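Notes to self, M1 family metallopeptidase:
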Amino acid sequence: MKRIFLLILSVSIFTGGFAQEESDWQQKFEQLGPILPTPNEYRTGSGAPGESYWQQRADYDISVTLDESNHRITGAETITYHNNSPDVLTYLWVQLDQNVREPETNTLKVSSSGIRDSIPAKFFAQGMGVSDYEGGFKITDVSDASGKKLEHVINKTMMRVNLPAPLKSGEKFSFKIGWYYTVNDRMEDGGRSGYEYFPKDGNYLYTIAQFYPRMAVYDDYNGWQNKQFLGRGEFALEFGDFKVEITVPEDHIVASTGSLQNASKVLSSEHLARFEQAKKSFDKPVIIVTEEEAIANEKDKAKGTKTWIYHAENVRDFAFATSRKFIWDAQAVKVGDKTPLAMSYYPKEGNPLWEQESTKAVKNTLVTYSKYTIDYPYPVAISVHAASIGMEYPMICFNFGRPNEDGSYSDRVKYGMIGVVIHEVGHNFFPMIINSDERQWTWMDEGLNSFVQYRTEVENYDNFPSRRGPAPNIVSYMKGDKNSMRPIMTNSEQILQFGNNAYGKPATALSILREAVMGPELFDAAFKEYAQRWAFKRPMPADFFRSMEDASAFDLDWFWRGWFYTVDNVDINLSDVKWFRMRQENEDIENKGKNVKKGDLTATAGNGENMDFSAGPQEFSLTETDPRFYGEFQNRIDDKAVIAKLRDKNYYQLTFKNEGGLVMPIIIEFTFKDGTKQTEKIPAEIWRYNESQVVKTFMLDKEVASIAIDPDKQTADVDTSNNVFPRTSEMSKFDEMKKNNGK
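result:
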């Protein structure tokens, strides 16, 4: 039945493909092979780690003391560095991230600045670097295990340690570093870590990170990571085991990466009993330190100190929070064969919101992310409340969302707080476990994390106002000024519109890939495969792209090219619709064929000027099949039977124009005169011969009342006014104006 008709369509589509220059029409569907790195024994063409994949390891034994009166951290560490590479190393690079705050930091020097009227003094002071605060590590010791001084050179946020002898493949080297630095006031100086002061009770809440010199990455891709920390591009780190002793005022409560080793020494018997109870409470959190106890604890400041000891295995970083203001609750979560503790630490200023929502959000995050990636492997996951921050570290994160002073809060505050908890706890998976290079590729942790954050929100909360992930939410950005955009595949320090580029656009791209291109079943399986392949390893963009294709049998190079390597947008214009029906003729097909006009053969009769169906269908005829179309075949089609089957059908010839540049599947919804609907999804490959315009004809039993492209707004189409038919006269005039302006 379809052979004659498909022959007609194939002729018109194929001919249209040659309207473009070859260099143009090949580009969007050209394979990424020349762009991506060549597969090797470390990283395969499938996107999986190769048989010779390796990565370095760094173990830490750290002791730090917080001097609350001077806001000073003093520390000493022993780093044991394992050279698992095939290379011989003559020096090591250590990251000194606190040096981003030293007086001569490059961060201020390379930041553009200008003056406008009525600039808030706080921001102007930050931009000009006029604060009295003097940050940065003060290195007091660099020596080997025996105490012998090691030659070292500090270059801004990096320190090179020269080895006394070459470190061969398979060997390890231990050395010591001593340091101190002054903790910054986040209200004055901003930053990912620091302290917050509460003037009403005279107390502080410390969120402490990047507090120790830590090993830079040496890998198969770049050798030593050599990008300075300027403040935006986050961290490239090695996995290892941590033993950390944290000495703080004795009335402080400490939240930390890792498992608490000396709970019986630092907790009261009552708090210890509640802590043990929480490990068995799966239905709701157990409050370990109550609000009343925290308020009482705020009043008197202890003179002595207490040391909390934490161990963490196979983590890439370490952070902690400490305050006498903390309320603390915890709940057990069932994830596979593990039962991690979801925990929250927050001052009274966070209640009642934090007691109601934080640990619940931690639990929801662990369960949902585990479904999409790997089962959460660590013993705890902690959410700490601190003003105006969202920042992540292994097993612990710092999150905003504070009610009004009377305890009331809006939905905006509530959902903002839940969203940031999900996002920051979710970072345990990206990049704390699936250990991408944040210094280079922000989207590999922020974008992938924002995507699974969106899945967590929609699967655990009714009508959650998700910011990033839904396709309509990225439209305003996508149709903006291209001069203020850069492709997703841009280094972290060079991104423009950071939130949209590194969070929103990749999260939306993956949502569209899941819903509109691959389908949830294939996408979820491929995404999980990627996560399992690269858990506790360091993937690069090519590993993600290749893994998604390898595990799904989808060639997605066109998708990665469009969404990740360009600033094009989606704008598919349903520019023309023609309605056809076959002529009702009684004469034999043999006689009819003698009178048919050549124009009837191509089924393109009609001027297409009507923007509705008021003129009725155009008519066309089928002719007797010429013997030359059969080639060497001896048998013949029954033309009369074919015509009989096709005679009462409705044929709708749709013309689509790619106005935005991004090739995408075309989702078409037909609404029939009887009110029923039918949806057709045309794969993106329909654009492969002509990326600017394609024509597609549909054979339908019923008459169509209207047609809509992307009716559920799944593709982030930036202009929905040209997605519908019939068009109003106003729409038609607008289309014409756009067409003329484009010329």
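- The first helix runs from residue 3 to 17.
- The longest strand covers residues 57-67.
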